[in-house]
């Protein structure tokens, strides 16, 4: 059973466990894959731990506890060097108060400052991307408010977010970040097209210059600005996504898994770029599932678990265990 | 949920009982006197989208009103299957008499046979069905005669020799076959007339326009264009006028639709032929009422065509 | 402008060169088969005339298909607006401007209805436009009382039938002007770029701040507007408004767009491909008429070309 309880109610979980008991009495052997500690300890006889594709070990359930388990799950050496740029942290630019969206997330509140990189950690399905999409206007909250530069906003469509100088680099560039049927140039300029045109007509030489500027600045490897974006590597595609948002000179940039599916070299380029952005006074929110990355770059880390904010950690107190503990804390709230 | 199942079963049971009662109840309705029965007639048209069908149905309706009987008009929408369903439904609803202008001369036969078997007289109008004896009577024109009238006029007008082009209706339709046969019948007597083009334009004005436009490009001389109907003749007329060849090419149509009559009056179209649509419709209605009363009629009643040229067009313009 | 014109002719795929080649090959074949009739200048003008109405419809259809949708209602709009235009073009009744304005307004209104239903009603475009296609046809038949509406003024006839400099038919001028204006819109404006974006990836377009709903409403309204113009021109050409006109015209428009290389899935395709597609269909119709090939065979040939075009399109995508 692979994550069998990720989409069912508590009542149904109880029923599932009753069935598991029944199967055990019939001498059926069960492998139960889960990241929910409380469940594991409720039903497991023995626990095996895998980490980054490596087999760590198998232990009788009564010989290990929560802390030991977490240590084994995350205890990896941070081999990569994540370049951290120091930038002065200024006033609050974004304030989220008690933002709720049905069963996706509830009562999320936090502040974001100029020059800050705020990391958001959590397990898959914790509601981080949903939170980002809601702030950006792709979906609407059921309650709560978003305040940008001390003004209450009513963001109902990405257009509104963009006007408020917010940018969102989505989790899956192929599905929601790029037009794969188009060229590098077209993808770079699609958000900020109004600035490159007059009375609705595009100034093509201006557009070419802007595209070339970003290809140069972000070191995007492409044959020409007219190459089809689908033929670029993942890293270069992500740089195109970044370019299209940077063209609008945003002040708040939300990045959802910014280095997923990207080679090491491009990753480094993006980390350095993020540093330059905060140095220039922008505010960044980085959603990431890569612990070294989020620990390496963030000034603060918020942790979401099952749609609720379960912890806030400042840089001096960053440890993998702390993050993992908050991320697996399903005690608060009744997630359906 | 269990009560729900019970209720559903009860309703189904009730429905079955009602249906059985309904079916067995029919025979008891038969003894009612025919005189007390309401006389509901049905007119089944192949479609209602051109002047011909409108004129036909208007004539039938007028005659029905004159005779004091109720008439429902059904539009078959050029769909053979739809018309069959319409007839079958009317028969089961106890229609008194049927006048039908068939979409498909073959496809409608079983439905007509079923109707006459059920004692309902059927008068077929304008287009003969493939099994004429299945119906009670046919009122119409001989499409061959119409074609003959058109072609004869055209042949004489071009002096018995020259090139002609034919614009045909949908291939295989009763009207197309009959009228074209008429053309060739006439041509037997005119060995010096050559048919240079012959294509279908499917009764459509725009198709005919394009076709004739392209024929005129070939450089082949054309002295007359004879069209199976007015709609196509008018398309040909436009093409010929655009090419400024109206003085060299004469145009003939059939149907006597209002726009064609106007063109004849203006001297642009040489002639059209009226298939006395009104007379056909009125006669068909008269005939079916006679049959219901039990009178004997001829199985085939033909109404004659009328040639309309600039000389007599005034009588036909409304 | 010169440079841009050259740039817009960049062939991003073998497929696009293919359509040009196919066009000239077919042209050459027809010229050989019928040397006297086909290649005459008068006949070439003929072909342009016969391509005009479909070409105008195809231009509107191109916008809709690039945006990821489809519009099946344009043929019925042609019928309705033709009937309305002819009704208001009888001698001595209304000034010429009335039928002209009514045609485009009614066409645009139907298009607007389509667009709103697709955008806000979330109903698939195929279903919506199938519905309006049927409804509008019914309205046309009722408005015309089932028969052609004739007896129009000479001025009305001259809308499509007149000539510029005594040689170029008005009809062709409208086709050319509309094509060039729409080409400009789709390639050089923000709106045009957004239409491609919506068709290429609707979600990414929304995330990029594009109001996808408005774009959809706009393209269907444009398609309806152009169908209104086509209806007016057809009525002028036939000097009558026919409620049964325009049947299957939407299929010819779609065929022109597809043959020209616009992908049915949306987001790609060049405007000149649609023009070539419309010209190709007219060339085939004209050439085969001259060679005395029945219209039934013409259907078979047209259908085969569409299938070949789609197969080439799919093969090209496979390579990518």
How is the topology of this model organized?
The complex is a heterotrimer of chains A (336), B (318) and C (320).
Chain A (H helix, E strand, L loop, with lengths): L9 H16 L11 H7 L2 E6 L2 E7 L5 H9 L17 E10 L3 E9 L3 E6 L5 H9 L6 E6 L2 E3 L4 H6 L2 E4 L3 H5 L6 H6 L7 E2 L2 E2 L1 H14 L16 H13 L5 E5 L7 H16 L3 E5 L3 H7 L2 E6 L2 E7 L5 H8 L9
Parallel strand pairs in A: 5-12, 5-13, 8-11, 11-12
Antiparallel strand pairs in A: 1-2, 3-4, 3-6, 6-7, 9-10, 13-14
Chain B lengths: L1 H28 L10 E6 L5 H17 L2 E6 L4 H13 L4 E4 L8 H9 L4 E4 L11 E4 L2 H15 L4 E7 L5 H14 L5 E8 L4 H13 L6 E4 L2 H13 L7 E3 L5 H8 L5 E4 L2 H17 L6 E3 L3 E4 L3 H4 L2
Parallel strand pairs in B: 1-2, 1-3, 3-4, 4-5, 5-11, 6-7, 6-8, 8-9
Antiparallel strand pairs in B: 10-12
Chain C lengths: L1 H7 L5 H20 L7 H26 L7 H14 L9 H23 L5 H19 L10 H8 L1 E2 L3 E2 H19 L1 H11 L1 H6 L4 H26 L11 H11 L11 H20 L4 H25 L1
Antiparallel strand pairs in C: 1-2
Biggest chain-to-chain interface with counts: B-C, 34 and 35 residues
How would you characterize the largest beta sheet of chain B? 6 strands, parallel
The third-level CATH topology of the largest domain in chain B is: Rossmann fold
In quaternary terms, these chains amount to heterotrimer
Figure out the total of helices of chain B: 11
The SS-based structural class of chain B is alpha/beta
Largest sheet entry of chain A: 6 strands, mixed
Helical amount among residues of chain A, as a percent range?
25-40%
């Amino acid at each position: 059973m692979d994550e069998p309880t990720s989409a069912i109610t508590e009542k149904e979980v109880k029923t599932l466990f009753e069935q598991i008991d029944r199967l055990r009495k019939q001498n059926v052997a069960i492998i139960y894959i889960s990241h929910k500690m409380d469940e594991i300890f409720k039903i497991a006889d023995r626990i095996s731990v895998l980490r980054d594709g490596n087999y760590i070990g198998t232990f009788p359930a009564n010989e290990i506890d929560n802390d030991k388990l977490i240590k084994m799950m995350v205890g990896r050496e941070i081999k990569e060097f994540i370049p951290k740029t120091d930038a002065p942290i200024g006033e609050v630019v974004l304030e989220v108060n008690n933002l709720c969206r049905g069963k996706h997330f509830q009562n999320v509140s936090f502040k974001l400052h100029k020059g800050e990189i705020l990391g958001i950690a959590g397990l898959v399905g914790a509601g981080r991307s949903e939170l980002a999409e809601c702030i950006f206007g792709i979906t609407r909250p059921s309650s709560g408010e978003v305040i940008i530069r001390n003004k209450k906003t009513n963001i109902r469509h990405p257009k509104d977010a963009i006007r408020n100088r917010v940018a969102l680099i989505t989790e899956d560039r192929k599905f929601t970040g790029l037009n794969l049927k188009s060229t590098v140039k077209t993808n770079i300029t699609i958000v900020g097209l109004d600035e490159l045109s007059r009375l609705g007509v595009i100034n093509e030489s201006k557009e070419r210059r802007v595209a070339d500027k970003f290809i140069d600045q972000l070191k995007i490897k492409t044959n020409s600005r007219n190459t089809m974006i689908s033929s670029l590597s993942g890293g270069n595609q992500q740089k195109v996504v970044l370019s299209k948002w940077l063209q609008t000179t945003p002040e708040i940039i939300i990045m959802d898994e910014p280095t997923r599916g990207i080679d090491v070299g491009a990753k480094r380029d993006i980390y350095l770029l993020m540093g330059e952005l905060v140095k220039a006074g922008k505010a960044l929110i980085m959603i990431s599932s890569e612990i070294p990355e989020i620990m390496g770059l963030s000034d603060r880390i918020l942790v979401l678990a099952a749609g609720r904010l379960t912890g806030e950690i400042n840089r001096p107190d960053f440890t993998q265990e702390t993050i993992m503990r908050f991320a697996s804390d399903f005690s608060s709230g009744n997630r359906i | 949920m269990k009560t729900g199942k019970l209720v559903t079963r009860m309703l189904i049971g009730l429905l079955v009982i009602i249906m059985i009662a309904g079916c067995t109840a029919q025979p008891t309705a038969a003894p009612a006197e025919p005189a007390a029965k309401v006389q509901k007639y049905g007119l089944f048209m192949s479609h209602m989208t051109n002047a011909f069908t409108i004129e036909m149905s208007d004539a039938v309706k007028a005659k029905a009103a004159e005779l004091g009987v109720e008439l429902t008009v059904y539009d078959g929408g050029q769909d053979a299957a739809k018309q069959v369903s319409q007839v079958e439904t009317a028969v089961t609803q106890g229609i008194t008499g049927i006048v039908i202008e068939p979409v498909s001369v073959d496809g409608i036969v079983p439905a007509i046979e079923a109707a006459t078997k059920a004692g309902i007289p059927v008068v077929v109008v304008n287009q003969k069905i493939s099994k004429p004896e299945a119906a009670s009577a046919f009122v119409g024109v001989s499409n061959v005669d119409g074609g003959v009238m058109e072609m004869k006029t055209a042949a004489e007008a071009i002096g018995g020799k020259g090139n002609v082009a034919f614009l045909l209706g949908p291939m295989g339709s009763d009207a197309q076959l009959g009228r074209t046969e008429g053309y060739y019948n006439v041509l037997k007597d005119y060995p010096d007339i050559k048919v240079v083009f012959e294509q279908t334009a499917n009764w459509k004005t725009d198709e005919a326009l394009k076709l004739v436009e392209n024929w005129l490009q070939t450089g082949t001389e054309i002295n007359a264009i004879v069209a199976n109907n007015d709609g196509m003749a008018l398309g040909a007329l436009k093409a010929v006028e655009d090419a400024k060849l109206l003085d060299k090419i004469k145009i003939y149509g059939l149907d006597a639709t209002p726009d064609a009559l106007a063109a004849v009056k203006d001297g642009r179209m040489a002639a059209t032929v009226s298939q006395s649509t009104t007379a056909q419709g009125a006669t068909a209605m008269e005939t079916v009422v006679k049959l219901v009363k039990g009178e004997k009629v001829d199985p085939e009643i033909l109404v004659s065509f009328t040639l309309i040229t600039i000389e007599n067009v005034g009588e036909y313009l409304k | 402008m010169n440079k841009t014109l050259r740039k817009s002719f960049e062939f991003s795929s073998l497929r696009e060169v293919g359509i040009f080649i196919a066009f000239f090959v077919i042209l050459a074949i027809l010229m050989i088969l019928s040397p006297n009739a086909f290649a005459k200048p008068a006949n070439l003008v003929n072909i342009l005339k016969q391509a005009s109405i479909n070409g105008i419809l195809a231009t509107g259809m191109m916008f809709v298909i690039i945006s990821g949708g489809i519009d099946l209602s344009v043929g019925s709009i042609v019928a309705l607006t033709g009937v309305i235009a002819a009704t208001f073009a009888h001698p001595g009744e209304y000034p010429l401007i009335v039928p002209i304005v009514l045609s485009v307004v009614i066409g645009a209104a139907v298009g607007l209805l389509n667009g709103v239903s697709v955008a806000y009603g979330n109903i698939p475009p195929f279903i919506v436009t199938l519905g309006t296609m049927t409804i509008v046809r019914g309205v046309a038949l009722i408005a015309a009382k089932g028969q052609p509406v004739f007896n129009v003024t000479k001025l009305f006839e001259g809308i499509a039938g007149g000539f510029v400099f005594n040689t170029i038919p008005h009809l062709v001028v409208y086709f050319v002007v509309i094509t060039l204006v729409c080409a400009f819109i789709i390639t050089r404006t923000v709106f045009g770029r957004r239409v491609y974006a919506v068709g290429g990836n609707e979600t990414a377009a929304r995330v990029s701040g594009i109001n996808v709903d408005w774009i959809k409403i706009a393209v269907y309204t444009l398609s309806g507007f152009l169908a209104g113009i086509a209806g007016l021109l057809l009525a002028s050409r036939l000097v009558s408004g026919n409620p049964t006109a325009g049947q299957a015209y939407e299929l010819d428009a779609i065929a022109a767009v597809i043959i020209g290389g616009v992908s049915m899935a949306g987001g790609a395709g060049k405007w000149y491909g649609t023009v070539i597609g419309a010209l190709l269909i007219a060339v085939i119709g004209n050439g085969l008429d001259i060679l005395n090939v029945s219209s039934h065979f013409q259907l078979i040939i047209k259908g085969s070309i569409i299938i070949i075009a789609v197969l080439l399109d799919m093969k090209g995508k496979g390579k990518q």
